[in-house]
Amino acid sequence: MKRFSSRQQTTLGKHFLAERLQNALHYDRIAGYFSSSIIEIAGEQIERMRGKVRMICNSDLDILDIQTAKAAALLALTKEWKESIDRLYSEKLQGRLLKLYDLLQSKKLDVRVLPDAAFGLVHGKAGVITFKDGTKTSFLGSANESKSAWAMNYELLWEDDSPEAIDWVQAEFDALWSDPRAVPLSEAIIQDIQRLSRRTVVSHEKWKEGASEPEAVVVESPIYRK
Fold it and tell me: Which residues pair with 160 in a beta bridge?
């Protein structure tokens, strides 16, 4: 068993996550909050993995009828995504979104969202990393899957490679991942990530000169996107 503190290891992302994913085959992660900024911490390691990353995270989706949960949640999830990205989008984010799109499209990264209606806020954070030689390790800690958590915040983390610990964390992940209320990222969100990753800002003067098709401007308007 090993213990890590961002007070002692200045960046847990470098000293723990990136280092272990360097030789990883698979990575299963329970993360209450997932941000594309994690790509800045371990994007290269994830891209080189022969296996995949499975991520279960949280959302404030409101599922009123479990019988129609999939259809309702996918619509709500897309709406929540667009409202958030319109508020947070910047040119700096664009390159990260391109890498995120490639990972999602290739299925190297598989993300499911579990609404609060299932177990309340998914506040537990844990993971199981399977290495290329078949060995595994597990960890528990306060860090969400984001750059701020792994590189900036004060976080605590316990690693345990005992079979009992690995089986326990894996069982928790599998239960959340397989929960019928867990919703995959909709294709609409994945395609929107692609669109934003290729967005080009055109000045009003160039647009008047015909440098951009008029429909390309219309499609970016809040009314159209809603």
Answer: 138
* Residue pair 16/4 in contact by the 8 Å Cβ criterion: yes
Structure tokens at 18: 């990136």
**Cα–Cα distance between 34 and 185 in angstroms, integer?**
12
CB burial of 179-214 (b: ≥16 within 10 Å; e: otherwise) equals eebbbebbeebbebbbebbeeeeeeeeeeeeeeeee
Which secondary-structure segment (H or E) carries 53? strand 53-59
pLDDT tens per residue, range 130-185:
999 999 999 999 998 888 889 999 999 999 999 999 999 999 999 999 998 887 76
**Which segments of 67-130 does DSSP mark as H helices, in order?**
69-88, 91-105, 116-119
**Spatial contact of 15 and 2, defined as CB atoms under 8 Å apart:** no
Provide the whole-model pTM: 0.70
